[in-house]
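re the bet — no i am not wrong, look at it urself. input seq straight from the record:
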Amino acid sequence: MEAWKRLLALTAAAFACHAGAQSWPAKPIRFVVPFAPGGTSEIVARSVAHELSAQLGQQVYVENKAGGAGTIAMGEVKNAPADGYTIILGHVGTLAVNPYAMKNHPYDVTRDFVPVAMLARVPNVFVVNAENVKAKDLKEFVAMAKASPGKLNYGSAGNGSSGHLATEYLKMVAGIDVQHVPYKGTGPMLQDLLGGRIESTNAGAPALLSHIRSGKLRPIAVGSAKRIAALPDVGTVAEAGYPDFETSQWYGVIVRAGTPPEVIAKLNAAINQALQSSSVTQRYATDNAVAEIGTPEQFGAFIATEQARWRDVVRKANITIE
């Protein structure tokens, strides 16, 4: 009799889960961004969230939860119900860098989370202070660095940031020695770069374009696989002689492991529709972001590729995040 009761209970639970997935979403969805307001991550999340609300018929609201290089928000979502009502913005840092750069990493990306959909890639740009650095392109910058090892420096938004990792990656492939100066955010770093206290940086295009247009910063290369529309005359790192080099800030949606497959499929379809809406495509064009439409499996494969890339960079450059 007890066995029958257990079987009935399991059947009822399975039916309830299936029914819940079929009716999803029946209430608002929380979209967590694991960084402070004002950055590219929030811009991407809010532009997509607005269209997702229309696609799903429920409000998708963005909530910023910064701290711990994204691990605080990731840990919270890991412990949220696996019902699709809490989703989080995945990023190169939280998914492909932190697991290898942090000694006491609080979550397992592949075990605790499931990929849903890629949202965007935002190209990184290598720039120099236009007044203090004479290099007109990446080849000239590399030549300067090789002529004076350790004399040039570059700033980043912080230890383990995408700009830090991208420049360490460049150092590896180009065989140069430039010194890292970490800051607490892109804003303070740019102030020192514009003031001539550091020579160079690598950051997302949206944060740099106005200073490039003013002539204060000179772009020497873009980290993306192709040239970008905003800087058509600026070559890629690969074009400068470093094949297969690519570094971009990328964003996607992930959920807690155990979320019903039907919910993941619905959310993926809605995100892909949102990415093709005029409001998102226009906003992405403004920021030179590239929409990525695909399946959860394709996003998962992309994450795995990025993990392999940045694991090697983290280990060879001996990068650690406290």
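see?? The radius of gyration is 21 Å. told u. also Strands lie at 29-33, 60-64, 86-91, 113-129, 153-156, 179-182, 200-204, 217-222, 248-256, 290-291. so pay up
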